[in-house]
Specification:
By secondary structure, this protein is mostly helical. It has 12 helices and 8 strands. The strands form 3 sheets. A 3-stranded parallel sheet has the order 3-4-5, with helices on both faces. It has a 3-stranded mixed sheet with strand order 6-7-8. Strands 1-2 form a two-stranded parallel sheet. Helix 8 packs across helix 11 and helix 11 runs antiparallel to helix 12. The relative contact order is 0.10. The structure holds NADP nicotinamide-adenine-dinucleotide phosphate.
């Protein structure tokens, strides 16, 4: 996600310095006019806005801690990874420690919307940060929802929306697996659903991936499994039972144990069978 997002910022005419743990993966950004830094500190030095898009709360915490020598008070930090409720508090405290203006801004949308600059940004943070973020969010997303002035609300909304996309993927996979298991062509499920009230772009994308056996990652099983834990934790804290997403988590763990962790979350399909 970070790579296409940084590319879009650069193409929008913003001056971008990028850092990625595995530097080689960020090098294509040089052709877009971005500088690829050798350390987090070098990446943040002199920036008006710092954007983080990494796996989880620990990775973000480590990267911003390592960036400390390059940080200066007053910089705006848009934290766009999916980190969950506990981590967002920890990161907000880290921002205070360094005098940064923290904006909790996770995104809805997978790799393709990220490439097209069509993410939906779920932003929560002080109004004072908004002018600096306007060109940044404008390059990354089709829409920004400013939900609240205090961090946490963006991540709370993200927990709700990602629970929907993850659960939907799991039920699409189960329906196709069941049809196949009952001796039918799973493509028949697609034929019945397509164009009717149960249809959706998400159903189309995930059923196509499963039927074509194309599990090139848009959103990995590994990251989806991480999100199910964050969602269940958020539900528990709020006193809301989340049976479906908990079951989706079990499926991702089974798929991951069988070596599908780096494939798209549509590979939850394989969790329906004892082998494969
Ligand atoms: N893909 C989606 O559809 C999607 C949609 C919305 C939100 N998200 C969220 O966006 C975030 C990134 O997702 P992604 O799909 O881009 O994941 P990804 O392909 O797994 O990339 C993870 C990134 O985090 C870095 N990273 C992991 N552990 C690290 C550590 N300990 N220290 C420093 N860097 C570390 C990786 O660096 P290396 O390259 O060195 O491994 C890589 O840049 C996640 O929070 C995910 O839940 C994803």
């Amino acid at each position: 996600m970070g790579l296409p997002m940084a590319g879009n910022l650069s193409r929008a005419g913003l001056r971008v310095t990028a850092w990625n743990r595995t530097r080689d993966k960020a090098l294509p950004l040089e052709a877009e006019g971005a500088v690829v830094a050798r350390s987090p500190a070098e990446a943040v030095e002199g920036a008006d806005v710092v954007v983080t898009m990494l796996s989880d709360g620990d990775a973000v915490h480590d990267a911003i801690s390592a960036a400390a020598p390059g940080l200066r008070g007053g910089q705006v930090w848009a934290q766009m990874s999916t980190v969950g409720l506990a981590a967002v508090e920890r990161l907000s405290a880290l921002a205070r420690q360094h005098g940064l203006t923290f904006v909790d801004a996770p995104v809805q949308g997978t790799r393709q919307p990220a490439e097209q600059g069509k993410l939906i940004i779920l932003a929560a943070g002080p109004a004072s940060a908004r002018p600096a973020l306007e060109p940044v969010f404008g390059a990354l997303g089709q829409r920004t929802l400013w939900i609240a002035d205090e961090a946490g609300a963006g991540t709370r909304l993200k927990m709700a929306t990602v629970s929907y996309s993850i659960s939907l993927t799991a039920v699409v996979a189960e329906a196709l697996a069941l049809a196949g298991g009952l001796g039918l062509d799973p493509g028949l499920v697609r034929q019945v659903v397509t164009g009717g009230p149960m249809d959706s772009p998400y159903f189309q994308a995930k059923s196509e991936a499963i039927l074509e056996g194309d599990f090139a990652p848009s959103f990995t099983v590994r990251n989806a499994e991480k999100d199910t834990r964050l969602i269940v934790e958020a539900g528990r804290a709020a006193g809301v039972r989340l049976d479906v997403v908990a079951a989706a988590g079990e499926r991702f763990r089974r798929a991951q144990a069988r070596g599908h962790g780096e494939q798209d979350m549509a590979a939850t399909y394989f969790a329906s069978f004892d082998e494969g």
